[in-house]
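tool_log.txt
---
The assistant was asked to compare two proteins side by side. It first ran the structure predictor on the initial sequence, then on the second. Raw inputs and outputs are pasted verbatim so the downstream comparison step can read them without reformatting.
(1)
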Amino acid sequence: MARVRVRAPGKINLVLHVGPPEASGYHDLVTVFQAVDVWETVTAEDALEFSLTVAGDVVLDEIPVDGNNLVLQAARAVASATGHTGSARLHIDKKVPVGGGMAGGSADAAAALVAVDALWQTNLSHDQMRSIAATLGSDVPFCLEGYTQVGRGRGHLLERVESEPFFWVAVPQPLHLSTPLVYQTLDNLRGELAPALPADPSQGLLDALVAGDAGALAGELVNDLAAPALSLAPQLQGVLDYGQQCGAVAGMISGSGPTCVFLTEDPDHQTHLLEKFLAEGHTAVRASSPVRGAHRSDREVPY
């Protein structure tokens, strides 16, 4: 097998509850991930040494192409786990906003795991794949799985829940927010008053997902990282306000930001809101959810 192409989805956190910091510096989470059809695509080919190139429709300046990139880390992790002695030439086609809270780097890693496993025919089990994914980053197991999942621990302990389709407009921002800094700012804002984590997402959220009820879902959206993101980038409030003025069912910061995402009623409403943002000079992306996780795309009709 000379070449394998795999794609993996970006994500939205419908709910993101963040617990107090642990001694390790990590925070326990209770989150609800939903995979969106904004795809990262990784192509892997046999090569004499590991290498990585990147292209795409988003700003690429901050993406490393050395060993700091999760794609190369993922490929080497598979080689290490399986004893494979070969290498791979890897290429990323990026569509998920970079550093935008939608897990583009994690999607790249998930896609790379599937790609090199298929390329090298190392036949990792699903459990082995998930175990490697968890060592690469908190969101990588979700990007591997896709659909709608409750995430616990650092977000890597997943439990699938059912959901009807929902329709979003994602509005990336021309700035970068460091995820560790957003978490640190949350801790500073809270001081000693970090609330206890809920055991589970609300029943209202789960009911809204099963019913496909955008209005009900709007009232259940929670992001504990919104306040620190807004304190670091107050201009995001203007984007959220504009979305509300244009009739979004709800608007929120995606994950640690700075991408803002807006819930709409249906595809027609989605198109209307997308056009409003584009007319105002924003970058805006149509996104629908939920979708499948990382999978071979060289065997299927284009999505």
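(2)
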Amino acid sequence: MKPENAVNHAHLLQSAAILAGGAVLCWISTVHPAFQPFWMPWDFSWCEYLAPAFAALWFFRGQAAASPQELLPWWRVLFFLLGLALIYAVLQTHFDYMAQHMFFLDRIQHVIMHHDGPFLIALSGAGETLRRGMPRWARRITDHRFSSAVVRALQQPVLAVFLFSGLFYFWLIPDVNFRAMTDPRLYFLMNASMTIDGLLFWTLVLDRRPKPPARLSFVARGVLSIAVMFPQIILGAFIVFSNRDIYPYYNLCGRLYPSISAITDQHIGGIVSWDPPSMMSVIGLLVVLNFYRLSEEKKEKKTIPVSSPQAA
């Protein structure tokens, strides 16, 4: 068997194993929900299962096909896998059920989907590794002019800041939030939009390369990281200092911890929406500054002339 055919055959077997695993999880979730441990899906979703599963598969395939110079160091591998695991954990375990019955847990879920998980994935700089591990059809989609144009449009600096902050606000509008929490289709759209937008924003900000080939300068990326901090502080403060129950859905569905009152639950959720996202913005700025320092050091090494040996 030719090497290329062997690689394709291995990918088919690996893909079949992922699909078989998903079928088992779907069956157990549907037929025997009461017997599931905490780490299994509360409400199985093929999209939320397949996206991280194939991302992990293509990542490992990309690492296996990399040259020694292209291999990611262990800490960047760890960042990627940890970011992926965090997103999966809040969507496809029983934590998703808990997040539907406590406002502050719902806020933790969204912070992980929108900030922590995408931040770690972007920090890993695994884009080329993922592309290397993709099958041809997936690479054709990602490399297509239309796909590139959509990403470029969504990563325009002003629009990127607007979407990143705006989506956080939009899904917390009380009427919108109530509808999203009671409609499975809107609930999926809410979670998907938060995760995708987080990935788009943080991969733009945490690009370790100078401009070009990066789309923005290090200064612009640092400004973006801080620019999204203030709207989130304002939103979190509004929720924290509100003395009325803004989100009645959690009273309707029943709170997971009845000892925590609606106002207390709301105040904790406001703090979660305020502090961790602000901290991630500051960390993002520090990371961008470090990338700038490393870039300048690399540039200096290239410009230092090598002294020629003196003639005897």
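---
observation on (2): The chain is about 75% helix and 0% strand. The mean pLDDT is 90.
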